[in-house]
Amino acid sequence: xxxxxxxxxxxxxxxxxxxxxxxxxxxxxxxxxxxxxxxxxxxxxxxxxxxxxxxxxxxxxxxxxxxxxxxxxxxxxxxxxxxxxxxxxxxxxxxxxxxxxxxxxxxxxxxxxxxxxxxxxxxxxxxxxxxxxxxxxxxxxxxxxxxxxxxxxxxxxxxxxxxxxxxxxxxxxxxxxxxxxxxxxxxxxxxxxxxxxxxxxxx
Length: 203
Fold this sequence. Notes:
- The structure is a single chain.
- The chain has 203 residues and is α+β, with helices and mostly antiparallel strands.
- It folds into 2 domains: 1-32; 55-202, Cupredoxins -  blue copper proteins (Immunoglobulin-like, Sandwich).
- The chain contains 2 helices and 10 strands.
- It has a 5-stranded mixed β-sheet, with no helix packed on it. The chain has a 5-stranded mixed β-sheet with strand order 4-10-9-6-7, covered by helices on one side.
- A hairpin with a 2-residue loop joins strand 2 (82-89) and strand 3.
- The longest helix has 29 residues, at 2-30.
- The protein is globular.
């Protein structure tokens, strides 16, 4: 009987130890959370992950969307060589092609003259497609409506501006050769309607 009690105690202690190790391992793997890119910040990593629970706080993790990516990176206001005004309407931009120079820094002013929310994002076609799925998640979660952005969510970042009807946004971008990049509106359905244009990067 005494041996049985000791055996049971040993088994219980072993199970508790295993459970403790599993908990420590799970905590270590989870970590404090990945350092990401909240909208409105310049923190960068790789585009496309959503931080669990972030939607409710008006934050999404894009990693380094917009920083030193193919075709350029967020520019310095002090280096701006010219300003290009882009008019967003339902669902089209006034420009379909923009000529830029390698190394040029341009300030884009995005004026929303439509009745819907619009976005101007600079990126490769693949990045645009990935961003569209994120925008759809925002809409499904109720943080993005057809004609307004809900709450205090700041969705603009280094290579993109989300603009409500009647408002103006801004993106400052330094271009370099290396990839085919374009500007597009990734509000669900807008890009597929043709709301996009190409950058032609010259020498």
